[in-house]
Amino acid sequence: MDNTVDVMIPVDVEAAKALESPARREAVGRYLSSLLKGGRARDTLAEAIAEAKREARAHGLTDEEIDAELEGIASVVI
Fold first, then answer.
1. Where are the domains of the chain?
2. Tell me: the pLDDT tens digits for 6-52?
3. Half-sphere exposure of 10 toward its Cβ, with a 13 Å CA cutoff?
4. Are 28 and 41 in contact (CB under 8 A)?
């Protein structure tokens, strides 16, 4: 990958193990770079949140409970 910069991002232990391979890290870097170009990350994040909400509802959580959890996560991230 030309014109790249190394960055540190927190991941869980399982993801860290998967990223031990330099070839896999390069592939993930290319994917992440393409995802962040043109606003695709926003679409992907919205899809991930919608899927998480569907799963939470399927496990009996209400929309109010889900939103409260998401607000708690957002306050930690921001």
1. 41-77
2. 888 888 999 999 999 999 999 999 888 887 787 766 777 788 888 88
3. 1
4. no
